[in-house]
Design brief:
There is one protein chain. Helix content is about 60%, strand content about 10%. The chain is α/β, with parallel strands linked by helices and about 130 residues long. Strand 4, helix 7 (about 120-125) and strand 5 (about 130) form a beta-alpha-beta unit. Helix 1 crosses helix 2 and helix 5 crosses helix 6 (about 95-110). The chain has a single domain (about 1-130), classed as Rossmann fold. It has a five-stranded parallel sheet with strand order 3-2-1-4-5. It has helices at about 5-15, 20-35, 40-50, 55-65, 75-90, 95-110, 120-125; strands spanning about 1-5, 35-40, 65-70, 110-115, 130.
């Protein structure tokens, strides 16, 4: 079972979030025991930004078993088309392309997506199984 992991869950674990940390840690452990967790470029970048150095962040990702999985042209195309649909439906946020890249990546490369931000993933990524801590 391949689980794409969103930034929110990883940062809950790495930063020991007092509200969500334990629940995110528990469900991430479950995903690790059931298969391979992966993270795409936008998630990897957002996690890297939370650390003082890239080596420390990459080491932390390896330690918990999360593997980097790159985006490809098809994923980028899906994300762009779905973002356009979102905007046509009246979506007003302008800085969420990364979220659509994360969802498109999960739908094409994983069996499910682990995220706390599950609302629009369910709305826009039909067929994607979404897990929440």
């Amino acid at each position: 079972m391949i689980t794409a992991v969103d930034t929110s869950v990883l940062l809950d674990v790495f930063l020991a979030d007092p509200t969500h940390g334990l629940a995110s840690q528990a469900v991430l452990r479950q995903c690790i025991t059931e298969g391979q967790p992966i993270a795409c470029g936008p998630v990897w970048s957002e996690v890297m930004a939370a650390f003082d150095d890239q080596q420390g962040a990459a080491s932390a990702m390896r330690t918990i078993g999360v593997r980097f999985d790159a985006l490809d042209e098809a994923i980028a195309g899906d994300a762009g088309a779905l973002w356009r649909t979102y905007r046509a439906r009246g979506g007003s946020r302008t800085r969420i392309m990364a979220d659509f890249l994360i969802g498109a990546h999960a739908r094409r490369r994983a069996d499910r997506l682990l995220t706390r931000d599950h609302g629009y993933f369910r709305d826009y990524f039909e067929g994607l199984t979404v897990m929440a801590p």
